[in-house]
């Protein structure tokens, strides 16, 4: 019963965190982490979590990553890549190089530097879109540029997670053969996913596939519309879990597979086979979002927050590292992303700078990398972990502030 008591405490803290996030318009992730740290340092949660809570948290991050992929419109995403690829590439490359260099300067360990760069390479779109919406800017071309760039950034970061984590954790030797094996695994995984997305999931399959008994006569719409869509949530979560397990078999984090599963599921698959006008997409998405962001997913972040055991000596000791890391990432993110938006994406300079400000945030994938490096594989020392946590907090606070301050200049530019 003790594990259930801990879960009740965590869910209470999640509700309180949601209230604070709503009042401050900051990402709830910050408050989830804060509540986890508060609970463990006040003794309400133990330093060593119950296996049930750890397992629950693992399910949470898988569902979160699936939900993030599920909410993306694949067609719009592909159309926007042409304009956004440069923003995503340089917007991730700048922070990666900066974080890697700063980590190398302070800790002089390649694996730590590599994982620090990886944690800081991926931006978040949820915090930025909430901030833009609060300022009435969420339907602007710059907002769409941020959205698409962040998605491309996240996908490329997921690929880097798949490639670099096995090297950093020692699962694969850093040799030509070892790197080749990782690349082969990555290619193999994505080829399988593409085949599933191209031939298995679509309702209208190739003629040769339709000849297969039973399977050839039923498509994904039949499965999702079974029982008037009552089992659609179970179906997509099963797809996410199976994709996560497939990714794990290829040596990747299950979150990689879950995200890709969400990305390849299209809205058209949720139309009823009996009534084409009926769709189960919105109801399914609403439930998935509730599961991911309201009651299972947040457990992951609260659980991660419990790793922050407050120690004044550690806090003081990482002030130089945090200050340099935060300042370096801010400068690199704004400069690299803005210049790419201006000269590759062809945005106005005021729009380009807004894109740079909007890409400062760090959220889900950064915490996944920190969890892998600190909790699961002990690559990070406590000092490194605290540095990245404080840096992430500072970067996320900067997003709504910079967007609000830059709004007058941005509005003047888009009206001219």
Protein traits:
mainly alpha, globular, Na+/H+ antiporter like fold
Q: Which class in CATH terms?
A: Mainly Alpha
Instruction: Give me the CATH fold name.
Output: Na+/H+ antiporter like fold
**Approximate shape:** globular
Q: What portion of residues is helical?
A: over 70%
Class derived from helix and strand content: mainly alpha
pLDDT averaged over residues: 82
Unreliable parts? none
Domain count: the total is 1
Number of helices: 19
What is the makeup of the main sheet? none
Order of helices and strands: HHHHHHHHHHHHHHHHHHH
Overall number of strands: 0
Tell me which oligomeric state these chains represent: single chain
Beta content comes to: under 5%
State the distance separating the first and last CA atoms.
Answer: 63 Å
In CATH, the architecture is Up-down Bundle
Summarize the structure.
This protein has 416 residues and is an all-alpha fold. It is built from 19 helices and no strands. The protein has one domain: Up-down Bundle (Na+/H+ antiporter like fold), CATH 1.20.1530.20.
Set out the fold topology:
Elements: H1 2-24, H2 28-41, H3 51-70, H4 74-107, H5 110-121, H6 126-134, H7 141-168, H8 176-200, H9 207-210, H10 220-224, H11 232-249, H12 254-264, H13 281-295, H14 297-305, H15 312-317, H16 319-343, H17 349-358, H18 364-376, H19 382-415
Helix pairs in contact: 1-2, 1-14, 2-14, 3-12, 3-13, 3-14, 4-5, 4-7, 4-16, 5-7, 5-18, 6-19, 7-8, 7-17, 7-18, 11-12, 16-17, 16-19, 17-19
């Amino acid at each position: 019963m003790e594990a259930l008591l801990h879960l009740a405490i965590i869910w209470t803290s999640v509700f309180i965190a949601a209230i604070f996030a709503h009042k401050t318009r900051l990402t709830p992730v910050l408050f989830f982490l804060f509540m986890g740290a508060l609970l463990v340092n006040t003794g309400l949660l133990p330093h060593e979590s119950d296996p049930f809570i750890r397992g629950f948290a693992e399910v949470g991050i898988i569902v979160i990553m699936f939900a993030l992929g599920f909410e993306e419109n694949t067609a719009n995403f592909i159309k926007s890549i042409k304009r956004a690829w440069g923003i995503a590439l340089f917007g991730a490359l700048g922070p990666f190089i900066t974080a890697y260099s700063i980590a190398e300067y302070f800790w002089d360990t390649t694996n730590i530097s590599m994982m620090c760069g990886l944690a800081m390479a991926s931006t978040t779109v949820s915090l930025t879109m909430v901030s833009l919406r609060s300022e009435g800017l969420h339907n602007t071309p710059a907002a769409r540029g941020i959205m698409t760039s962040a998605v491309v950034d996240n996908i490329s970061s997921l690929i880097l997670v798949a490639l670099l984590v096995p090297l950093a954790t020692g699962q694969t030797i850093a040799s030509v053969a070892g790197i080749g094996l990782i690349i082969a695994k990555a290619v193999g995984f994505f080829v399988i996913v593409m085949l599933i997305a191209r031939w298995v999931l679509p309702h209208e399959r190739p003629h040769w596939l339709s000849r297969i008994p039973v399977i050839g006569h039923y498509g994904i719409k039949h499965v999702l519309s079974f029982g008037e869509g009552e089992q659609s949530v179970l179906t997509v979560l099963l797809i996410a879990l199976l994709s996560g397990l497939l990714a794990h078999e290829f040596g990747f984090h299950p979150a990689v597979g879950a995200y890709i599963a969400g990305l390849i599921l299209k809205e058209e698959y949720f139309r009823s086979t009996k009534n084409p006008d009926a769709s189960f997409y919105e109801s399914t998405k609403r439930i998935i979002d509730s599961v991911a962001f309201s009651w299972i997913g947040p457990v992951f972040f609260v659980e991660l927050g419990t790793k922050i055991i407050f120690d004044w000596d550690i806090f003081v000791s990482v002030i130089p590292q945090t200050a340099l890391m935060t300042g370096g990432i801010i400068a690199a993110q704004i400069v690299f992303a803005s210049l790419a938006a201006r000269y590759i994406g062809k945005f106005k300079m005021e729009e380009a700078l807004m894109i740079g400000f909007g890409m400062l945030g760090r959220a889900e994938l950064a915490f996944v990398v920190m969890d892998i490096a600190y909790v699961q594989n002990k690559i990070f020392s406590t000092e490194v972990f605290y540095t990245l946590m404080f840096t992430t907090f500072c970067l996320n606070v900067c997003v709504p502030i910079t967007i609000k301050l830059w709004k007058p200049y941005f509005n003047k530019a888009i009206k001219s």
